[in-house]
């Protein structure tokens, strides 16, 4: 009996060891699966992954079958009747160029048939930005405001560099952008005082946008605004600073300059801790909403409206048309309006911007390209 009892204890011990080992293995397996799942979620794809295009069956929305447009986008013929030329202005600089230009292919990224290092990637985005403008608005100028010490070289027709002294570090770039806009507007005022008939309207934008329709209609259909901002239905950040238009008259340039000076003052005094990102948009919203009796509920509708903010006549344009963001941003639930004019590849969408240009170059069809963008899904394409 004692021998049998000892054997039972031994067998029970073996069973216990087996169960503990098995449970530990299952737990480790589950943990490894969770880690792998997180890696998959955070993975940045090196190719486009198309999904269903939002807005199917909705009127006045682009309808797509894959990357083929089933209806056509509306072209505005916007330059007709516009008094003055139009120039696009963007702030752009290059970081760590001496390091990135080393022949280290380990960190290179492939998009289509091209290989990019960090400097190449930034320059590719800038060049595609220019490409889209020159297709949609071939008579427009592009002015690149940049750090005088930046090793930046752009040899393109109707493109010029305009160095402005300032602090262009990553942490201060958004702050510097407003300062550069103010400085540039000030120089335009001086030029106009010498030649008041030389009217040029200005559109200040991020360099990661694609202009897909002529924007001249904006100045023709709304002849009285000093500057234009784009808005979305977002309580904390209703205004996006990636698109700001300024009419080219002396009064409008002066009023826009004074408005941006007020935004800069609020930026520095209230939102300096957000100087790397979002501070400019928070400051814009604060200046606009601080106007007594300003009706912020208008931001919930995709209808343009005007208001006087501190003496500056501001035209508020819906992001859905003038600052539309691919899936993961404004507009993804309701598709893409047929008359969209600007696509903003902000955040993790830079690769998609280059892929879109490559697709357009092979098809020369804007509507099909917009279907490619619309169906790109919520995948992380940034590099």
UniProtKB/TrEMBL annotation:
Protein encoded by which gene: LOC101513192
Species assigned in the record: Cicer arietinum (Chickpea)
Signal sequence residues: 1-25
The name this protein goes by in its record: Uncharacterized protein LOC101513192
UniProt cross-references to InterPro entries, sorted A to Z: Nucleotide-diphossugar_trans
Keyword field: Signal
């Amino acid at each position: 009996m004692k021998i049998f009892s000892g054997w039972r204890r031994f067998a029970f011990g073996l069973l216990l060891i087996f169960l503990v080992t098995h449970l530990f293995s299952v737990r480790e397996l589950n943990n490894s699966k969770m880690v792998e799942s997180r890696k998959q979620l955070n993975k940045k794809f090196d190719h486009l992954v198309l999904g269903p295009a939002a807005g199917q069956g909705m009127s006045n929305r682009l309808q797509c079958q894959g990357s083929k447009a089933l209806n056509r986008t509306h072209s505005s013929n916007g330059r007709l009747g516009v008094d003055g030329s139009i120039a696009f202005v963007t702030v752009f600089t290059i970081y760590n160029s001496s390091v990135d230009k080393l022949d280290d292919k380990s960190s290179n990224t492939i998009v289509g048939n091209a290989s990019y290092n960090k400097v190449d990637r930034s320059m590719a985005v800038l060049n595609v930005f220019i490409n889209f403008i020159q297709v949609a608005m071939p008579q427009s100028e592009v002015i690149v405001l940049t750090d005088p010490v930046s090793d930046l070289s752009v040899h393109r027709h109707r493109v010029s560099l305009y160095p402005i002294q300032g602090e262009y570090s990553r942490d201060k770039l958004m702050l510097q952008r407003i300062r550069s806009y103010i400085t540039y507007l000030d120089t335009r005022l001086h030029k106009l005082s010498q030649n008041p008939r030389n009217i040029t309207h200005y559109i200040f934008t991020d360099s990661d946008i694609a202009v897909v329709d002529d924007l001249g209609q904006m100045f023709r259909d709304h002849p009285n605004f000093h500057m234009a901002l784009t808005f979305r239905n977002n309580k904390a950040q209703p205004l996006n600073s990636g698109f700001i238009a300024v009419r080219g008259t002396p009064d409008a340039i002066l009023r826009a300059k004074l408005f941006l000076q007020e935004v800069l003052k609020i930026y520095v005094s209230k939102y300096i801790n957000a100087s790397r990102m979002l501070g400019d948009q928070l400051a814009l919203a604060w200046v606009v909403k601080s106007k007594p009796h300003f009706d912020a509920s208008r931001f919930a509708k995709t209808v343009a409206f005007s208001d006087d903010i501190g003496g500056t006549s501001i035209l508020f344009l819906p992001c859905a048309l003038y600052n539309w963001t691919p899936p993961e941003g404004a507009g993804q639930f309701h598709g893409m309006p047929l008359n969209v004019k600007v696509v903003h590849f902000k955040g993790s969408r830079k690769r998609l911007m280059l892929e879109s240009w490559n697709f357009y170059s092979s098809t020369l069809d804007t509507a099909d390209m917009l279907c490619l963008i619309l169906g790109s899904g919520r995948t992380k394409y940034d590099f």
